[in-house]
Each structure stands twice: as C-alpha cells, then as structure tokens.
Amino acid sequence: MLSSSSLNGQSRLHSASSSYLMELSIGTPPVPLLSIMDTGSNLIWTQCEPCISCFEQTTPIFDPAKSTSFSQLSCNSPACIDLGFYSSTTCTSAKCQYTYQYADKSSTTGLLSKETFTFSSSSRSTSVPNMVFGCSSISTDSFENSSGLVGLSMGDLSLVYYLDSPRFSYCLTPFFDMSTGILLLGSGACLNSKNALSTPIIVNPAIPSLYFISLKGISIGADQLQIPSYSFDIRSDGSGGMIIDSGSTFTGLISSAYVVVREKVRSIVNLPVSKYTIDPAVDLCFESNSMPNLPDMIFHFDNGDLNLPKENYMVLVPGSGLLCLAMIEFSSMSIFGAYQQQNMHVLYDVGNKRLSFQPAQCQKSCIVPELLALHTGTSVLPQACFSYP
C-alpha cells in the first residue's frame, strides 16, 4: 500500500485499569473515540453499529451510516490481502471480513473499511482521510470499555504507516493517576535529553511487525541476577526474545528469568507473603498497605541500563492491602509492559530502528501552544515539553 496522507499530530493519554487510552475521532462529522494504544498489534479498529455482540463503551458507538466519508473494502483490496498475514479474513458479499485475535485469546470481528480520523490538541486538529480500519460488530472481551484499539506496530495497517515521519513517542502517567499523558505522532515526536538510553530495535523475521529489543540481564540493586544467558535470545524458529508492548499491562519474563527475579524479590521484601493476589497471573503478593523501601531493578539493554524504581516493578493496589510483583511468567517470550514504562518518555524512531527511554514526570508534561518553525521555514505542530528529573 502507498500512504496518501502524512500525519503529524498528538493525542492525550488516559490511564485505565490495565492499559492506556488515547483520544481521537472518526468520521464526518467526527465522533470521539477513546481507544487502547497498543504498540504490539497492527490493526486499528473500533466498535460499529449495528452491533451484534459489543461491549459497553464510554463514548458513542460509531455509526458508519451517519458518516459521509465511510467506505468498505473489498476482498481483493491490498489492505485485505495485507491483513490476511496477521489474522483470519473471509469474503462476505465481496466485502473483507476479519477476525483479529490477540495473545490473551480475546478477539474482534468486523468489516475492513476506510474512514477519516482526526487527532486533536488544544490548538490544532489534524484529519487524515482514507485510513484503513476495522469496523467491528463482535468482540469477545471488554477491552477496558474503550472504543476499540489503535495498533502502533511496524505492520502495514498500523497508525505508524500514516505518519509523515516514522516515529512516535509517549509519556505514560502512573497507574491509578487521573492526570493525562501525551502521545506524539510523526516528525513532532522527539526526545531532547542527553541522558536518554537508546537501544536498537531488532527486526525478527518471523514476526517483523513487533518491536524486539535486546535485554542482556537484570539486576536488583547491586546484585546481578544469575539468569541463564540464553533467556532473552531470539531462537532460530523466531520464538523467544523480548518485545516492548504498550498494550500489555505487566512485564512478562520467560520462565528461566522469571523464577530468578521472583525469588530475589521475595527475599528482599520483609513482609508476610499473602495467599491472595490481584490477578490470577500474578503469583507473588505481600500483605501491605504501603510501599517499602526497595532498591531499583535494572534492565541491562544493549547499549545501556534502564533503572526501574520500586514503583515500576511493585504494584500497590489502593484499598487491597496487597503489594505485588508487577511481573508475570511467560513460556515462549518476554514482554516489556506498560506498567514498567510509567513516568517514562519513550521514543520509537522506527525509521532508524532505535528505541529511547528517559525517566520523566509525565503528569507534568505540557503542550507548547506556539507553532515552531524548522530551519526549512515550514511549520510543524505544537511540541510537547517534559519534566525530566
């Protein structure tokens, strides 16, 4: 496919119970959406009328019959053919029907379509016509009672495909915090900090749409954990390795690494272990109503170290009386999840295959209202400023 538009915009982000939701609008006239921001998937989709089996959402369900810019795609369209590499597609009255399934077995079904999407800031709106998206009428999960999901992977159907420059960045506010973060899209996305960690994005030929990163090891405080050296390697069949995924709540570590991390955390937290948990996948919780003093957990990436304060690897759920390790055990690969990225400004420079991290006070991020002039004399969207420690 060839992109017919060039998006340079931004969106506000809101923390939900297990993910981050981005603001955008769909259709003509625009209908507001609040959709999960997911760097681990390819498809953009939203619930559409008429719904067969839809979950409740906080914004109005999009009715394509009321939009003058909506159109459906045929089975032989390039987008339908592309989607067939990622999900199941079938022909229904010559229209492209899909069923897109996620790693947790949730799925959504609908008709592949085109529509105008609008991305707004306080001072300017940017509309992008003819964006390919899924118009879903059946979903098997609540998807955080969002409007749907925005894929930001390296696949041909993701939002990255429509950017004027293949780069984006976000700053995630803490979980359980009602403040808003920022998603910057296109050439306006930057990370102006000399202290940022930059590590290569690795393309795994078996799953080329996902953002793989090279993790060499993990420390807690001054102790380098004795994790087998092969634990984070991409195997010859394409399995293994580590991806970064804003759509996954907690970091998942492959078993050979998780058991070592879990045992070390259990040994340094001087609190009673609880028989209860906040989630069936979370298997280490302590009885506590406060966060104890704990050392940083350090992820040793290719080209530098990322320090995670205790708030980024332990979760204290308000009112639960539980303090839990915010990591889970995986059998086939590792995932660097959204909880570990809170209060972090993260830049995906897709064109140059670089991922950068900088700790930031994301609830203090702001939008500079003036248009900035580049050295070429052209104008770009208002930039965001971030409060770095």
Automatic annotation (TrEMBL):
GO biological process: proteolysis
A GO molecular-function descriptor: aspartic-type endopeptidase activity
DNA repair is among the record's keywords: no
PROSITE patterns to which the protein is assigned, alphabetical: PEPTIDASE_A1 (PS51767)
Annotated signal peptide: none
Peptidase A1 domain span: 20-358
SUPFAM superfamilies with a match to the protein in the record: Acid proteases
Alphabetical list of CDD domains matching this protein: pepsin_A_like_plant
UniProt keyword list: Aspartyl protease, Glycoprotein, Hydrolase, Protease
Protein family (similarity comment): Belongs to the peptidase A1 family.
Name of the featured protein: Eukaryotic aspartyl protease family protein
Domain of life: Eukaryota
GO cellular component: extracellular region
